[in-house]
Amino acid sequence: MDKRITFGILTVSDSCSNGTSQDLSGPGLCQEVEQCFINSKILFQDVIPDDQKQIEETLLSWSLKGCNVVLTTGGTGCSPRDVTPEATRAVIDKELPGMSQVMMNKSYSVTEMAMLSRAVCGIKMKTLIINLPGSSKGSKECFQFVLNAIPHAVALINDDIESVVTTHRYITAGDVGGFGEPSKVKVGRAACRDRESPYVMKKVVEALEIIFHECGRTTDSEVIRIENSLNRVLAEDVHAKDPVPPFRASMKDGYAVRAKAGSGPRKVRACIVAGDKPENKSLNYDEAIRVSTGAPLPDGTDAVVQVEDTQIIEVTADGNEEAKINILVTPSVGQDIREVGSDIAANSKVLNKMDVISAGHIGVLATVGHSKVKVFRRSSIGVLSTGNELISHKDTVAPGQIRDSNKLAIINLLQQHSYEAFDCGIARDDPNSVKAALYKAFSRNDILITTGGVSMGEFDLIKKVLVADFSALIHFGRVDMKPGKPTTFATLHFRGQRKIVFGLPGNPVSACVTTLLFVIPCLKYMERRENYMFPVVHSSVVPLVTNNDERPSYLRAQVRFSDGAFTATTTGNQVSSRINSLVNANALVVIPGNYKNYTPLETFHTILIGDLAN
Fold first, then answer.
1. Residue 227: partners with Cβ closer than 8 Å, 6 or more residues away
2. For a 10 Å CB count at each end of the chain, is N or C smaller?
3. At what angle do helices 25-36 and 431-444 cross, to 10 degrees?
4. Is 407 part of a structural domain of the chain?
5. Residue 271: what are its φ and ψ, rounded to 5°?
6. CB-based contacts of 125: which residues, under 8 Å, 6+ apart?
C-alpha cells in the first residue's frame, strides 16, 4: 500500500463561490484524506458555483490531468441549482451505483433526510468521481462510508494487478488504505511470552482517579439545534429574548370587560380566540368581548370574567351567537389576565450554565425564542471488537465462531446514557489487522473502546500494538475487580491530537460492567457534568452470597426499595461470560474479596445503574 493516490477536492456552492459563505466541507475533506491516506497527495482543490457546465469542465480537466479520485461536495440535493449529479453523469464513462447506495443506506441511519440526496459515483477514464453532500458533517461521514473501497477501486481502474491483490487483502483484513508500515509487533513465540503481567494492579478507585486526571474536563463548546440538545450540558447562561407572554392574554374562556363597570348586562361586541391579532379599538363600559384561553386582550380591557359567572340575556337573530350577557359576579382589575412578561421577563436569565438539558429545558428554550444553544462539546467515540472467532451478529455461525455481541451491547449501553458511538468493526488477532483497525479508528474518533485482546494470551495484542506502533502510554493494565481484571487505559498522540483508549476485556459481562464503571463516568466527567458517578446505596443481598476470590466482585442484581430499606436480588449465574446476568439488572453490588462471613443483616455498597425495580 505504498503507491500514492492523488485527490481532487471540488466544492460546488454559489454562496461559497461568491464569498457570502465559508467553505468548511472542502478543507474538512482535505483533512480527512490526509489522515486516512498517509501517502496521498491533493493535486487540486477548488470552489465553483452551482453551474453544470463549469462542474463538467472541472471534472473533465482534473481527469485528463491524471487525478485518481475526485471528491465533490455540494449540489446533490433537490433545489433548482443542485446540478452536481447531472454534471457528473454527463462526464463519467461508467457509473458505480453500489457506492452511491452504500452512502445512501448508511446516511439514512443517521438522518432520514438522506433520502433526498441524489449523489452519483462513477469513472471517467482513470479517475474515480464521488459526489458527497454539501455539509461538512455529511461529507465527512459519507467519505468514511466508502473509504475502504477507494484504494481497491483505484487499483482496478488503473488495471494495477499487484495493487488489486494487495488492497483486496488489506480490505478483507479490516484495513484502511495507506495505513503505513506493518506492525512492529511479532507473534508466534509463545515460549517467550510473559507469565506474569508487567502492569501493577490498581484498585477501582485508583483507576478512576487516573482516568479523570488524564481525561480532564472540556472547555470546548459548540452551538447545536435545540432539537438535538437533550442531555447535553449548557456551556452558558440562557436569557429570554422575548417576554412571555408577549401580549396581554386571557387565562380563561370567558369575556374581556372593563372592571369598573361592575356586574350587570353587557353587549357582546366580538369574539377573539387564541392566535387572533389583538383588537386596537377600545372597549366601552357596556361592552364585552368573548375570548378563549390564550386569546390576546383588546385595548381598554382590564379583567376577564369566566363563562361560569355569566348568563345569556339575548342571542342574534339567527340564534347562533350571543348578543347580550349578564355578568353575575363583580370583576376585579387584573382578574384572569396574564400580563406581558408575567411568566418570563425579557432579558431575564431562564437557564443556568452547567444545567443538563431536559425536555423541560428544551420547552423553555423554544418558548423564549432560542432555536440553537451553546453546549459543551462531546468527544467522538468508536467501539472496536477483536478476535478471530468473531463474526457479525447478522451472520450464520460456523464451527469455532461466535457472534460479536460486545460491540452492539456497548454501543447501545452508551446510547442509553445519551452518547453516540461509531462501529469500528472487528480486528483479527493479527498485529497488522489490529494496527490497521486502530489507525482507522483514531482517524475519526477521540475516544476508542476496544473489547478483547487485553489479557495474557499470545494473541492478546491491543496493549502491544498500542505501545509499539502508536507510542501509547499505558496508565494501567490490570484492575482489582471481578469481572474486568484485564481492563486497560491508555493515551497517545495521533497526528497531533490526543486520543484516549479503554481496552476492555472480551467477556461480554466484563465489557459491559467496565463500560458502566469506567467509560460512562469518564464521558460525563469530561462533559463537565456535576453528577458524573452513578448513585450508591447500601443494600442487603438475597440469596446469601460469598466471594472466594481475592478481588472484589461486582454482582449484577435487581434492587428494590421497600419498608425504608434497599434489597438486592442477584440475577442468576454471575460468571463473566454469561451476559444473561445483565438482563433486568439495575445495580452492581460490591462484595469484598475473600468474603465468607455473611450475615443476613449486613448491607453492601451498591451502585445503581438503572431505575429501581417495582
1. 362
2. C
3. 160
4. yes
5. -130, 130
6. 63, 64, 93
Q: Which of the 8 DSSP states describes residue 260?
A: G
Range with lowest mean pLDDT among 164-173, 366-375, 510-519: 164-173
d(CA 80, CA 83): 8
Tell me which H or E stretch contains 369: none
Contact 265, 290 (CB under 8 A): no
What type of residue sits at position 544?
A: L
SS3 124: strand
Q: Please give the model's pTM, rounded to 2 decimal places.
A: 0.71
Q: Which residue has the cell 443542485?
A: 82
Say if residues 394 and 460 touch (Cβ distance below 8 Å): no
pLDDT-derived band of residue 196, with 50, 70 and 90 as boundaries? confident
CATH code at position 385: 3.40.980.10
Q: What is the pLDDT of residues 516-569, one digit of tens each?
A: 999 999 999 999 999 999 999 999 998 888 899 999 999 999 999 999 999 999
Same domain, 350 and 334: no
436 and 384 in contact (C-beta within 8 Å)?
A: no
Residues spanned by the domain of 117: 6-172
Tell me which residue of 473, 477, 482 sits closest to 456, measured CA to CA.
Answer: 477
Which CATH number covers residue 238? 3.90.105.10
**Do 423 and 513 share a structural domain?**
yes
Burial zone of 514 (CB within 10 Å; 0-12 exposed, 13-18 middle, 19+ buried): buried
Residue 131 sits at the vertex; the CA angle it makes with 411 and 163, to the nearest 5 degrees, is: 80
